[in-house]
TrEMBL record:
Residues 627-655 are annotated as: Disordered. It is found in: Membrane. This is Uncharacterized protein. Coiled coil: none annotated.
Amino acid sequence: MGSRGPPYASAKLADDEENALEDDINLSRASSLLLDPRLKGQISFLELWRFASPRECYILGIASVLSFVTGFINPSAVAIFGQIMIDFTLAFERPNDPREPNQLGSKALLFLLLGAVMLATTYASRALWELTAEAQAKKVGLAYLECILKKDLEWFDVNPGESIVARLGTDIPRMRQGIGENTGRIIRILSVVICCLIQAIVASWKVTGIIFALSPLILAIGLSITKLESWALKRTSKASIDALKVAEQAIAGIRTTHAFSLRDRFAKSYEDKLRILSRAEGWKSFTDGFGLGVFNGIVFLIFAFGFWFAGKLVNSGELQGGKAVTAVLCMMILATSVLDLPEALTALAAAQSSATILYREIHRRPGKKVQAVTSRHDARAINGAISIRNLYFSYPARPHVSVLNGLSVEIRAGDTFAFVGSSGSGKSTIVSLLQKFYNPIAGDIFVDGIDISRLDTATLRKNIGLVGQEPTLFALTIKQNILMGLPDGAEISQSEFLRICQMAQVDSFVSEFPQGYDTFIGPGTLSGGQKQRVAIARALIKNPRILLLDEATSALDSKSERLVQVALEAAYAGRTCIVVAHRLSTIRRATSICVMKNGQIIEQGSHDELISRNGAYTQLVNRQRLSSGDLDQSNRQPAPPHYKTPPARVSPVEPGQGQVLRLETPDVLVEQVKARLLQERTASQQGLGTKRRNEWLRVRAMTSGMKFRFFLGTLAAAGFGATFPAFSILLGFLIFAVMADGETTAWVIGIAAVGLFSFVTKWAQVSLFGNADAKVVLRLRSLVFRNLVKQEIGFFDSKSNTAGILSRKLANIEAVPRVVTETWSTFFQLFVCALMGLTQAANQSGPITRMVLLYAPVVIGASVWQTWSYSRFAEQSKVAIEQSTQVAAEAVREVKTLQTLQREDFSVKRFEAFLAEPYRLNRQNAVRDSLAHGLQSTSAMWTLAISLGYGQKLINDGSSRIEHVISAVICLLATMIAIASAAGAAKSYSKGLFAARTALALLDRQSEIDHDKPGYIPASFDPRFQFRNLWFQYPTANAPTFRGEFNLEGWAGQSLAIVGPSGSGKSTVIGLLQRWYDANGGEALVGGLAIRDYALSKGLRANIALVGQEPVLFDMSIADNIAWGSELPVTMDQIVEAAKQADVHDFVTALPDGYNTRAGDKGGHLSGGQKQRIAIARALIRQPKMLLLDEATSALDSTSEAAVQRAIDRAARGRTTITIAHRLSTVKNVDRIVVINDGRVVETGKHEELLQLNGTYTDMCSQQNL
């Protein structure tokens, strides 16, 4: 196949995409149920249950029937109550007939039976809906994560990882909420509507018709309010996500945040987003209050209008009083149910919206990859011959910046090809394109003569091993991380496993860990070099036909690099190897070396051939030479150790080879997960030991300045609470009026006035307290965030305190104000309601009131049990949910590595294993919550049963009259319904209480290194430093880094380099100087003063600048990233000057948006070298007295390295500069070089002095010479 034509040609790509869509698709386990075409538009109602199994569909059918039956109960109660009114009328007409009063007892038994049926059906239907919804949510979550992990990287370039994980945390719960009890509510409401409508028509079609005629107006009002509330919800959602992104950036890059004292800047940025969110929440509470007020007002007005019209019919003799009451009450229940419908429909609409987004991604084909394996292109067919022809490419995030411009190269099977050149020249892009992470704009890539666009992606990647520039390991043990490289289902002998680990220099440091290869890898467990060696072992254990090494040894010290390089060179045998390197010593023996510039090859040949040409490659070599004559010194190096080449395939295990190793299936990991969850629970409780003070009082204190708002809100809550007993009193008079003569005008006007009053009070109550909620959330989130970002670095090293987990805790603060506002508001509402309702009921019949009060503890107890149950559930599921979220976030963040290893399915199953615990707890809580809800739902029925049954006795005894019994029943019924409605507030309170405990625990935590502690602020900073007999161990490490033998001294204005093996403590010096950690013993001094005695930000860190080994940039413009290096305002000229010094100005100005170009999430829009140069510019603009360079040039090509090194040399004048380096060419001109090993200084002196010692440093130099 020839070239695809000119750059940016699209016709061929379109044809390929059409052909790809015609191929068979090997759908994944979770999405195999989705066989219809790609989704277009909003999904239908029934499509929400696409993932339901036949058994679950059967359960859903039962739940639907039970919900429908539940809907029949209230209308049935109205029919019985209407019959009571007819009996009441007959009792007045025939006062001497002893049969009429006795009818109350039989009706009481019916209400008792209805209550029992309602308890059973409500409990069963709600539990079934919730259990099936939980199962659907789990399936969709797994399918969504699985499809996301199989997408092309170009999709991730425009879809940040945070938003993907956020969908698991927002869209999945939103969908689950819609397809659970809310769907049951909709069915129940439809049942109520049907039953009430039939009964109302039978009782009086005229009353039914006149009330039904109002439905279009009511529906229009409801839809308008729903639309208004949806608009407010969208505003709050966007503002919430924006605030969450700021928090995640600050916490994810916490070392950079501390190093440049960015706490206040991030806090200001976060608070700015919170203010926008607070205003949006204020508007949302205003619209919510208006909607609820309108709905309550409409209910009363419909009721008043219905009774007025029914009274006219009774007065004219057209309608019997009992039937009039039945018709109006049925329409009243119908209207109330319909007005309750928008909330359930909104939840269902939100579920449809979220499901549409999720299903669309699940359905979407994975780009232009061909997933079907054909017999012609199976795994055995790949030998490794690669042909790249006229290749053009631009990244999707920067389509106007051409990275490759007509690149062509031929690589024979078994050859080793190296690509060198400046940063951004396209070297790493070739590695990505070979793995089909992206599709070229034009041109072709062939493997064994087959266009890789037609080659199965799984087959291709199964035959490729990759070690990237920034090694990625997973939250597993070291052994499991290495075994991740094995093909799925493959196994290896323990002896072979150990041999490969020795080749990669892993065994040398793992043997020092107490748990050896079973050591769990968490933050800070391994150094950069150790992580890279594990990644190399993982690549070698795969035994691929094609080996891709993208700066595979960049993080290794000289000794380890040389040993690993020998192992890699041995591994090259029989494989096609493509090496991207800045260290030219690592590619000297390559078959061919390609020098790249601007996306093209400008030189190609072997090392000797290119040296003889004295061209661009020779210039690169000369820049990395340590001294004259070093070019040929490598010939005098001692012979490195020899390793046998591992077999091309993992052979079947022979007898006697020892234990067989394989990567455990996630099912086996479940028990490990449970054990780890228990440990995490204990650790989290110890690490965040909240003082357990009264949460209510503490949150209440944050409402300071809102007294007038609380006063008005309290009056509104009390006023709204009074509407229920007022309504019940008026209703009693109204019923008697209808039964007597039909003259209802005065009482109808009273009920209409109550309706208007309820509209005003409910609107005011929700608006005022909602606005207070928003302000409390703003204050608490701001306080918690400020306390979080001043915690010591060791706090963030714990895997319980990752950026994702802490950001989620910040988001959950939204529920905290419910502890105060909802409690306060509900208390006064219920207090006034109960006081007025019970007083009026007692006036009519004290004995009945006292009897019903004996049942009240059941209703209240159900609410209390529901609150306790949820609180206990939240405590238990907290760590489990955090862990599952962390696993998903890790998988999305490291998707490139997962796709290379073909371990997407493993990660999904691992996520499923972590979901097992929260899934179990959620199901348990659903059953308990359903039982509590069932008990609360019986309050009306059993109140009627008790009051009517006891009323029958009082009537028979002659101690009460039937009209008094009916009046008391109506008052008590309204009061008990109001009390039962507080169950929602009780559950909301329990959620808020749990969120408050979590938030206050974070707020109470005292950093072990106090950022705000007063300390010494020198007028002129003295950068001398001294370490004496230092003892230090990282909080998450398995062994001490320094054991009391570390001594080091640096002078003002001195350039000091620290070199040594990986894990020897080089970067630890940087962390201690910035006081990221405190030493466990010994002395750490700066300027003759203990580091602990300085004011941390203004006294110490304000005078220090850092360029780290893995540069962290933020999702803002390049100009802002540089400017944030200075604590003082800077001009654009200063930014440009710093960029020029860091040799990044030319690159930035070549971008379409120049300095306004966004760096992307974690600098994802830039290459490693570009990110590091911007980080250097950020450090230089700070004008520090002490400059810390932790592998500051490790990601740079030779050309850029030389330019940046000159800039650093200029910047170092007059400053104390400490350089951590593996490339010794970058430090040979410093004032003093310190060699450390095993936690102590073993050599110190200038470059020439150390060479004369012919010791450790000399060996390191000889290993790096070309």
